[in-house]
Amino acid sequence: xxxxxxxxxxxxxxxxxxxxxxxxxxxxxxxxxxxxxxxxxxxxxxxxxxxxxxxxxxxxxxxxxxxxxxxxxxxxxxxxxxxxxxxxxxxxxxxxxxxxxxxxxxxxxxxxxxxxxxxxxxxxxxxxxxxxxxxxxxxxxxxxxxxxxxxxxxxxxxxxxxxxxxxxxxxxxxxxxxxxxxxxxxxxxxxxxxxxxxxxxxxxxxxxxxxxxxxxxxxxxxxxxxxxxxxxxxxxxxxxxxxxxxxxxxxxxxxxxxxxxxxxxxxxxxxxxx
Length: 274
What we know:
The chain is of the alpha/beta class and 274 residues long. 39% of the residues lie in helices and 14% in strands. It has an eight-stranded parallel beta sheet. A two-stranded antiparallel sheet has the order 1-2. Strand 8 (160-164), helix 6 and strand 9 (184-188) form a beta-alpha-beta unit. Helix 2 packs across helix 3 and helix 3 crosses helix 4 (118-130). The termini are far apart.
């Protein structure tokens, strides 16, 4: 079988296989249900949501109406800041499952490294993992210092760390530490929220490969081994973001993209969080 969005996975340290390209639904609003439906129709089997996005119910409805067997889907959600702490995190997880109308999550993440409470929250996630209600557990926006703290206390290491990653923001220390620990890297905002799609290097590589600048950016992440979470509510863009498996970037192209590092943070910056 040739590789495509349905058949390309990263194996997590939990043993679970996460589809390497998923649909992000941050700020998808009232178009969330139709976006998820379009993605599932296009072959996606991985959807990434969060309590704070306010659209878990719409994700759940789209999944239910798709009639795709649950075991073929990979669904992620995240613990929001106000719900940190052991008991609060367990309660928040139950609420997330209720909104999604699912019996379990494939991956549950701590959304942000909230000071003082994040280790208690992680203890709750370890309980959910032991109970198999969360088949894998992980973190989001944890940089190397946050990971070092967690390593010292965790019984179970995170299966994934979801951070902003693009050629323009490579977080090399954090990426290296995750790779050393066997923690998969998930790239959110992998398209720079559109801020660098006209960059001359991307435009030149787009012309060279016959692919869009967005596809060049995503292919870079794919070849780095990252799990990619491009967000769109437009069916044609959703399809385009999955059409990454009929071309490759050569070593020269990868080096050109690696040279674009500029510390471009388009969303939250966890470097400001102790």
